[in-house]
Amino acid sequence: MARATKDDADEEERQRFADRALGFLEDVIYWAIAVVLIIGSIALLIAQFNTMLGLRNAGAKIVMLEVLDGLLLIFIFVELLYAVRSCLRSREIVAEPFLIVGILACIKEIVVLSVEAATLLKDGPQFSRAVVEVGVLGVVVLVLALAAFVLRERRRDVGDPAEQDVRQAEEDQEKATSR
Fold this sequence. Notes:
This is Phosphate-starvation-inducible E. It is found in: Cell membrane. It comes from Mycolicibacterium rhodesiae (strain NBB3). This protein has helices at residues 2-54, 60-90, 95-119, 124-158, 161-178. The protein is built from 5 helices and no strands. The radius of gyration is 24 Å and the shape is elongated. The chain folds into 2 domains: 1-92; 95-178, no CATH class. By secondary structure, the protein is mainly α.
């Protein structure tokens, strides 16, 4: 009987060690992803600035399309960084940031297609295809927004522990600041 208890304790200790080791490796990978996203965001900002400088003699429509296209891509990177941060904080994958990335990606494509569609007015079939694609992307945006809303409401009802931790930290910071 004592031997079984010792074996159970050894097995439990091995499980705890494996959990700690894998948790550490998971954090390292998430941090590496975060670093790559930060570097990518900075590179995109620099590239966006260079694009703006290169287009200073171009038409306003081209400049605005390029700027908006680049900025939406930067927003996608930043939202992915937020998703990684949420995963690190709550130790679980949170779906909402990925839904927002999907919404941003769809909006980015809608903007690009809308400008292209304006140049395709004379070409009936391609214009029709672009209009249908914009419509489908619009529906996808609505579905993703509805899914994000439902998730947020469900989290409010259940009481998300990560969100409660953030609220508690904000309250503690306010108390420390008011002193």
